[in-house]
Amino acid sequence: MKIYTKTGDAGTTALFGGTRVKKYNLRIESYGTVDELNSYIGLIKDQEISQEIKNTLLKIQNELFTLGSMLATPPDKETLKNGKERLNIPKVDENSILFLETEIDKMETELPQMTHFILPGGHQAVSFCHIARCVCRRAERLSVELNDQETLNNDILKYLNRLSDFLFVLARKLYKDLSIEEIKWIPEKK
After folding, report:
1. Is residue 145 a contact partner of residue 137, using CB atoms and an 8 Å limit?
2. What pLDDT, on a 0 to 100 scale, did the predictor assign at position 51?
3. Do 169 and 111 meet the contact criterion of CB atoms below 8 Å apart?
4. What's the CA gap between 127 and 72, in Å, rounded?
5. CA distance 25 to 10
6. 133 by DSSP, 3-state: which?
7. H helices present in the chain, as ranges
């Protein structure tokens, strides 16, 4: 299989099910941003962090591929003519969301209570977490907009919302694991 097909040379691409849309279509923007997020999570995973966190991030990366596939499938193409689901893979669901919540709760037991907003930075691994969190929020905003046009599986929106929380808490955990002080936002007084 060649990597280039030339079918997108005119600015369109195919969704699962064959429907062709412009490459700037909101559905493409949504799953493209999820793909960007996945790449940043790969950067976090490549840092000098614990194997346990790397394993968690790998699971999340796999979930994001599934979530992207769900976004790439228009509602009218989710079911094949024979009645079977087009995506014959486990979907992002309540268990996926519960996994993120459990990981967040586990990390938070080790962290001091937050008393200030925290500025991104202080270590490359922490900064990558914050970049990923921002990209995740963008993916969520795009997906919410898409959901206003075509109803999505609500677990997609929940998962992205929870994942951004996970990435924030992971940044805080990495500050602790790497013995780096969080950079508190303390605005200047007038």
Report:
1. no
2. 97
3. yes
4. 29
5. 14
6. helix
7. 26-45, 51-71, 94-108, 124-149, 154-177
**pLDDT tens digits, 155-185:** 999 999 999 999 999 999 999 999 999 888 9
The position carrying tokens 């075509």 is 150
Cβ atoms < 10 Å from Cβ of 91: 16
Specify the pLDDT at position 43. Answer: 97
Which parts of the chain sit beneath pLDDT 50? none
User: Using an 8 Å Cβ cutoff, are 108 and 99 in contact?
Assistant: no
End-to-end CA distance of the chain: 64
Closest C-alpha to 57, from 152, 170, 182, 147:
170
Buried b (16+ CB within 10 A) or exposed e, 147-157: beeeebbebbe
Residue 94 burial by Cβ neighbours in a 10 Å radius (0-12, 13-18, 19+): exposed
